[in-house]
């Protein structure tokens, strides 16, 4: 019989994780027991992806492994239904929600706090993991393998997960704003929009690949590109004047603080 895999909340994050896992065969399509809030979402997801998606929570909690991916504000509403199951492994991706709170709300479940990001959808994800003390070693390595399918996995002390989330999970939005603004600049300078967007994305991806593959400090790459009295230093001067570094630092700090508040 196909092992079942429960999913409580099949929104953007759960889909970004589940679809690559289905493609890789780590989770069997016919074993998925997903639960969402609205009939409209359930019907749409079931028809589009050929999955069992219900609005009756009991469907998911009978599985031995459950991925919990509702909004933190929806946690209290979904928790009581877990009592219908007989316990197992609970993998929560809820921002800020601590292992201690999960263990209180889900007695009988061994809890894992995972901090994934949406690039998982294209297997370029990052996941931070912290395990409840009662999760046995074989389950820990299974969870690590699961998330390794969609990118890089880092096991961290739980206290570091809010900072991890601020950089890696909220970070795609920060980077998207940078990409959009760079493209806007190129349009202002005369390039067509679609070309500007493509070039902005490739510039970000190429720069990241160069930093990683050559193990460069970001300052080295900045200096490599900046000729004396050249174009780059003229642009960098504007970035410093506008406080880009400070804005990014404060964005990451604000996201980490918000994650702690959501606990
Ligand atoms: N998006 C991201 O980049 C990241 C998100 N996270 C975390 O992932 C979690 C989900 O976020 P995200 O995917 O963006 O949110 P979405 O709003 O896209 O998805 C939420 C899902 O929960 C379902 N839901 C709501 N209430 C209930 C309920 N009572 N019972 C069952 N299902 C319910 C919704 O169903 P319906 O569609 O019917 O409303 C929907 O499928 C959050 O806790 C967030 O902190 C973590 C890292 C990154
Ligand atoms: O914005 C949020 O709350 C979620 C968690 C991290 C990314 N998105």
From TrEMBL:
GO biological processes: L-proline biosynthetic process
Known EC number: 1.5.1.2
Pfam families, A to Z: F420_oxidored, P5CR_dimer
Top enzyme category: oxidoreductase
Pyrroline-5-carboxylate reductase dimerisation domain sequence ranges: 158-262
Predominant location: cytoplasm
Pathway in which this enzyme or protein is active: Amino-acid biosynthesis; L-proline biosynthesis; L-proline from L-glutamate 5-semialdehyde: step 1/1
Coiled coil: none
Binding site for NADP(+): 69-72
GO CC, any one term: cytoplasm
Localization in the cell: Cytoplasm
Catalytically driven reaction(s): L-proline + NAD(+) = (S)-1-pyrroline-5-carboxylate + NADH + 2 H(+); L-proline + NADP(+) = (S)-1-pyrroline-5-carboxylate + NADPH + 2 H(+)
GO molecular-function terms, A-Z: pyrroline-5-carboxylate reductase activity
Keywords: Amino-acid biosynthesis, Cytoplasm, NADP, Oxidoreductase, Proline biosynthesis
PROSITE patterns: P5CR
Signal peptide: none
Domain called Pyrroline-5-carboxylate reductase catalytic N-terminal: residue spans: 5-96
Family: Belongs to the pyrroline-5-carboxylate reductase family.
HAMAP family documented for this protein: P5C_reductase
Main function: Catalyzes the reduction of 1-pyrroline-5-carboxylate (PCA) to L-proline.
Protein name according to UniProt: Pyrroline-5-carboxylate reductase
Organism annotation: Cyanobium usitatum str. Tous
Organism phylogeny: Bacteria, Bacillati, Cyanobacteriota, Cyanophyceae, Synechococcales
